[in-house]
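Lab meeting tomorrow. Please check the following:
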Amino acid sequence: PVVFSSLDGTPALSVSLANGSPASQDGGSEPGPRPEWVDCIQASDMCNQNPHCSSRYRVMRQCLVGKEKEAMLDNNRDCQAALEVLLVSPLYDCRCKRGMKKELQCLQNYWTIHMGLTEDGDMDDSSPYEPVAPNRHPDMFRLASISSGMLTVAPKGFHCVDPEKTCNPCLDAAKACNLNSSCKKQRSSYIATCSKEDPNKGDTCSKKRCHKALRSFLDRVPPEFSQRLLFCPCQSVGCAERRRQTIVPDCSYKDKEKPNCLELRRVCRQDPLCRSRLADYKVNCWVTPQTVSTCPNQDNHQACLASYARLIGTDMTPNYVDSSFSNWTISPWCTCKGSGNKEEECLNFLRYFTDNTCLRNAIQAFGYGVDNMQNKNLPAPSVTANTGSDWSASTLEPPFVTMPKVKGFALIDYYYYNVACLCKL
């Protein structure tokens, strides 16, 4: 049986399918090769061209409207009949491309059919995005793997450009971003937005606008720039604090009070974008203790890093919890205190972030630089470009970068610099 449930995690409907899978569209009995998936916008168009499918699709949308959707899906015969028809339509196997133009519309179409959570309430959503190809060079990444019980320090293969000065790869990542027009523009935009006070909320910024600006940055800036800012390997508190402040956590990450993690998960699942990216993170970053590999898809670390980055800018935005550089922890802004009889479920969910060997290995591997070896034709830009003055080994960013027109951008870089200086004393 295939178990479906409502968006907030309560079981809603169980449908048994013949032979354990949807029937083939051509009615043949031969298994044959599985047809290539179509995106859910195309699948919706295909369904709307079929009167029988389109009528059931309209019914299904009505079943998901309002607070009584659980009862509708569980008890209403029209809803059950509509779902049974849609399970054998192109909508059942549809997927969405990451970063596609109509991504939100595509995801909404997907979740009209796939409301799937297991009966015990634990997260078991399948990813609505196109499948990720297995890593073609698993052995290379395995060399950089670490055990879950070890401290995560900057890799031995990392060397300072100037051995007389303290390394700060996160500062170098910021310099590289500022040398790229797109990265500089998008970074300036989200820092300004996330640093701006919201007049409707007193001293607090608009988290909604901040998240939108962060998503724009991560969607539009190539990962060789954005991921260097997020996953730069640190050997000092100043570097780790700069890395933690990358997403301007006072606005994008923190809040006045920490919600319960299960409540945060429930809120995330109400939003198609957040729910989709959370499911994609689990699919690409979580393996069971019995699995031989430390990451899914043959230790595909890059897939894990990409799905983690795409969570930033949603209600489930994760971040480094403090400025530790030797034993860092990543978590969404939530707690399991006060979970009552659901404490174990809450802790299990939180471990997807705090005790995730795949994610730690992926970030550690990124520090070695091996993730970029698959893209040898797209090297990270040099940060020692000739700008008329020797600033490449300095803790300061070049003057034309640190004094932009956006006030919030200059202030936050000034803050980073002072933290780095204080940590050297």
User: Anything to note?
Assistant: Residues 407-424 form the longest helix (18 residues). The beta strands are 2-5, 11-15, 318-320, 330-332. The chain is about 45% helix and 5% strand. The radius of gyration is 23 Å.
